[in-house]
Design a protein that fits this description.
globular, mainly alpha, Hypothetical protein af1432
Length: about 200
């Protein structure tokens, strides 16, 4: 059986630093980011199904989220301002990401590729799940931003403004996003003492 390099690339994700061009109070890597996005995506689908009549699979959403940055194992994290600097830049980066995702897919044994393709290659991801993972991605970035601002890191002021706009729009299309914010967001920037106090009083 031919050996695969797929897991070797995945295990290097903790080495890929996010927000690399910005001063950060707390460093974050791509592996941590994907894990948190997966948790948020799972919760979004649970909320969608329980409160808004959704029929999606929470585990599938979480799995897609775990792999949603797989292209960065080849390309590393690219600053969003650079990626979306112009339509030409965006088109070029999207093409690179697609090539990187397909290269990751090709590194798997051939008999596993059909099942993995709709998880790894973003152009093949079901649009409903893709929207959920995108929302989870933005929510995770928002939590990160709020924590950086909590420690007076002004580097993230403009990030918050941009994310506020995106979340407002998403709330219109995905009511589970607004619900998630109301339930979970405030506690994500609480101190340890405050979290413990809240647990004891609930």
């Amino acid at each position: 059986m031919k050996p695969s390099t797929f897991m070797a690339w995945i295990t290097r994700m903790p080495l890929l630093e996010r927000w690399a061009l910005m001063h950060c109070f707390q460093k974050e890597n791509v592996s941590e980011h994907c894990h948190q996005v997966a948790v948020i995506a799972h919760l979004l689908v649970v909320i969608k199904n329980k409160r808004f009549g959704g029929k999606l699979n929470p585990e599938k959403a979480a799995t897609i989220a775990l792999y949603h940055e797989v292209s960065e194992t080849k390309l590393q994290d690219i600053n969003s301002n650079t990626k979306y600097h112009s339509p030409e830049f965006t088109k070029a980066f999207k093409k690179l990401e697609d090539l990187a995702e397909k290269e990751c897919l090709a590194s798997l044994p051939e008999d596993l590729r059909e099942e993995m393709e709709p998880l790894l290659v973003q152009t093949q991801v079901d649009p409903e799940y893709k929207a959920i993972v995108k929302a989870a991605d933005i929510l995770q970035a928002y939590v990160k931003t709020m924590n950086e601002l909590r420690f007076n890191n002004d580097e993230f002021q403009h990030v918050k403004i941009n994310l506020d706009k995106k979340l407002k729009q998403m709330e219109q299309d995905l009511p589970e996003v607004k619900c998630f914010i109301e339930i979970f967001l405030d506690s994500c920037t609480s101190t340890l003492d405050k979290l413990t106090e809240n647990e004891l009083t609930n």
